[in-house]
Structure formats: C-alpha cells, structure tokens
Amino acid sequence: MKELKKRVVVVTGGSRGIGRACCAAFAREGADVAFTYNKSAENANTLLKELKKYNVRAKAIKADVRDYNECQSVIKKTLNSFGKIDILINNAGIVKDKALFMMKPDEWHDVVDTNLNGTFNMTRAVITLFLKQKSGCIINMSSVSGIAGIARQTNYSASKAGIIGFSRSLAKEVASYNIRVNVICPGYIETDMVNSLSGDIKKSIKESIPVKRLGRADEVAQLCVFLAMDKSSYITGEAIRIDGGLAA
Length: 248
Ligand code: NDP
What we know:
It contains eight helices and seven strands, in the order E-H-E-H-E-H-E-H-E-H-E-H-H-H-E. With 248 residues, it is an alpha/beta fold. It has a single domain, classed as NAD(P)-binding Rossmann-like Domain (Rossmann fold). The chain has a seven-stranded parallel β-sheet, with helices on both faces. Helix 1 (17-28) packs across helix 8 and helix 3 (68-82) runs parallel beside helix 4 (105-133). The N and C termini lie far apart (36 Å). It binds NADPH dihydro-nicotinamide-adenine-dinucleotide phosphate (NDP). Residues 12-13, 15-19, 36-40, 64-66, 91-94, 114, 141, 143, 186, 188-189, 191-194 line the site of NADPH dihydro-nicotinamide-adenine-dinucleotide phosphate.
C-alpha cells in the first residue's frame, strides 16, 4: 500500500526543478497532485501527462504566488477538483543576486514578494481549512542561505530566513490542531536556478561542498515526502538542511 494514497498535495512552482521532482515523488507514493506554475505552461502540460501515468489525479493551475487572490483561487480550484487538501508545499521561489549597493528596490521586492509573501499567501489561503479539519501538513522551501549569509544574496537570504521564522511561529500556533509545519533548507541543487551560474562559479561551488557534488532535485523531493508521511508525525517546527554538508 502506497503511504500517501488518497492524500491530496498542493505544490507551488511545480513546473520546474525541485517542485517538479516533488510532484513526481508524491504521485509515485499515490498522492493526488495539484501544482501551480507561473510562466512555464508547456512544462506544466508535460508534467501533467507524466503524473497521470502514476494513476493519480493531477491538476495544473496557473497562479502567481505574489497575488493573494490567485492563491485563494488555487485552494478553491483544488478543493473543487479533489474535494480535500492534506499537504501544502510552498516551493515557488526566485533569486535575483546582486551586491546590495547595486540592488534596485524592485529586485529586493520581487524576491521577498515571491519567496516570503508567496509563502504567506498560500499558507493563509489553506490554513482555515486545515484548522477546521484538524489536520494538515505544510512544508516550506527555504535555503541554507536562510541560515547562513551568502554574499550578494541579501534579498534572497532575508526572504528565506523569514520563511524559517514564519514556519516556527506557525508550527507552535497550530500544533494542537494536528497541523505540522516544517522547513527544508537545500544547499546547491542542480536545477535551472543553479544551472544559470557560470561554469567557473559552479566548479568552485562544487569544491566548497563536502560531498563534492551538487544535490539532485529528487533528493530534496524524498525529504519532502518523508516530512509529509505519518513516519515524521513528531517532527514540527523544524528546519532541515539538505546540502551535502555545506553548512555543517
Ligand atoms: P527553479 O528556478 O528551477 O523553479 C522555480 C519554480 O518556481 C518554477 O516552477 C517557477 O514557475 C516557480 N515560480 C517562480 N516565480 C513564481 C511566481 N511568482 N508564482 C508562482 N510560481 C513561481 O527553482 P528550484 O527548483 O531550484 O527552486 C525551488 C525552490 O527551492 C525555491 O524556493 C528555491 O529558492 C529553493 N532552493 C533552491 C536551491 C537550488 O540550489 N536550486 C537551493 C536552495 C533553495 P514558472 O517556471 O512556471 O514561472
């Protein structure tokens, strides 16, 4: 028996990278998957076909996590299609790295709006449902950059540290309702986000990682699946690094 059979998961930013790997990993465990995309409609359609091969229900929803009303609509559309929601994964995120003295206000706001406010928007949209049903699981994607500072990432680090604070407070607030809130802090994972870096930077990043390689999206997805399973029922308010030892 697949452990997540009959569970419904909502994944933001499912069209690419870690989010995409999460959608596939949850479908493999039998969960019905609703995922959002913003710009990558073609990727979303391909993923939709792939997920259906696992004999689960799948739904792609176009939504910008920066928009509060669109996030409310993601939850409504998922409920209309699947009848319930058990797990929310706030994965959608962007980087706009720059030294602070060069950073324009919109580069600050866009990163904070997507990463931190997007996490608020989606969580706010689902929390009343989770409180009413007295169950739920929320997994928020932060970063090692939210734990240790990384030069040229003030906007990203601030947003990712904010996600950790948000999650710890919420975990305490809703624990008595059988709702768990956890955070994943990946190091460097081989996705478009990291592949956009130059070859030289990637080489020096690899050298700085104790296990001497980038992480894979499916490795992060497996952790996500574990945190959504009853096997992890005593874990809440935790921020778990998955970084090949980078920030150890
Ligand atoms: P990718 O750049 O590969 O994918 C980002 C995803 O987020 C896409 O599906 C994209 O959708 C979606 N997205 C971006 N902006 C929005 C928006 N405004 N509204 C809705 N969706 C949006 O990133 P990764 O897979 O690498 O990263 C996933 C998460 O993991 C992020 O939160 C990131 O910060 C975090 N992370 C990644 C690390 C890495 O090394 N890769 C390290 C640490 C953390 P679309 O393409 O449709 O626009």
